[in-house]
Amino acid sequence: MTAGDDYEVLLAVIDHGSLTAAARSLGRSLQAVSRSLASIEQQLNVSLFTRTTRRVYPTAACLAFASRIRPALREIHSARDELIEQNVQLRGAIRIAAPSSFGVQYVVPSVTAFMGIHAGVSAELLFSEKHVDLAGEGIDLAVRLGSLPDSNLRARRVTEFRRVLFAAPEYLAARGHLTDPSDLAKHECILRKDPLREVWDFGADGRSVEVHGRLRANDADACNMAAAAGHGIARAPLWQVRSLVDSGAVEVVLAEFEPKPVPVHLVWVAGRSLPRRVRALIDFLAERIAAQDL
């Protein structure tokens, strides 16, 4: 038995008021508890307790000593637990929800990389543009884009992404370049909502412009590809069209008037004790997503 074990016995006797109760709480024999106290008293050459037939009472010196060693023992326990956890392989299933397009592009590569590191972990990915009920659906972790409403969820803000306007170089050459959002009145805009009009916001000051267009689609990829084909100006998160921008298929326009960036969060149910595998995945996803140029 180490000195730390003896000191745990000392604190247990103080907390429980008797050797018998301390022995019971520690799962040790009464004789072992008595030996630990005797060992400490012999080492320190001090009397730790006054005894009656039913209880033991700590001396002033004992209480002062205990107040010093109690925080140290907590640190020892914490360090020991962390070391043990590091040597235990992560195991078990994790259910993750994410928006479809963002999830396929950024969550899937990160989750599969995590599984490659931790062979005992399995994952189920659920993609939807709607916010699912994490507690009701038994989901451990979700990726959310945009501002978060008040809820019973805990959140970790990971990064943010830009929203941009873009068009094919051929379209801009034929119809003219834009210098101000009001120029959109002279252009075809590819819409995602109302078939006749749509309002696009610009800048940190909350400015907005009503735009019009003859082409409308309820699918982001369809709108983005139509813009790349030269049919008008579209709006999308930059991460959605990064490859089109980098290849020169489209050009970003009115960049100086971009609206505020959109936050990206990882969320989970508050008050629930997270398994170590989920905590590890949160850290892994946060680092990987934050490293992306969104």
Automatic annotation (TrEMBL):
Q: Which processes are annotated in GO (biological process)?
A: DNA-templated transcription
Q: Which GO terms describe its molecular function?
A: DNA-binding transcription factor activity; sequence-specific DNA binding
Alphabetically list the UniProt keywords: DNA-binding, Transcription, Transcription regulation
InterPro entries assigned: LysR-type_TF_proteobact-type (IPR058163), LysR_HTH_N (IPR000847), LysR_subst-bd (IPR005119), WH-like_DNA-bd_sf (IPR036388), WH_DNA-bd_sf (IPR036390)
**One Pfam family from the record:** HTH_1
- Domain HTH lysR-type spans what residues? 8-59
Q: For this UniProt entry, which residues form the secretion signal?
A: none
Q: Which domain of life is it from?
A: Bacteria
**Transmembrane segment boundaries:** none
Q: Does the keyword Transmembrane helix apply?
A: no
Q: Which family does it belong to?
A: Belongs to the LysR transcriptional regulatory family.
Recorded hits in PANTHER family, A to Z, give: HTH-TYPE TRANSCRIPTIONAL ACTIVATOR TTDR-RELATED, HTH-TYPE TRANSCRIPTIONAL REGULATOR
Name under which the protein is recorded: DNA-binding transcriptional regulator, LysR family
What is the organism of origin for this protein? Paraburkholderia megapolitana
Which lineage is the organism of this entry classified under, starting from the top rank? Answer: Bacteria, Pseudomonadati, Pseudomonadota, Betaproteobacteria, Burkholderiales
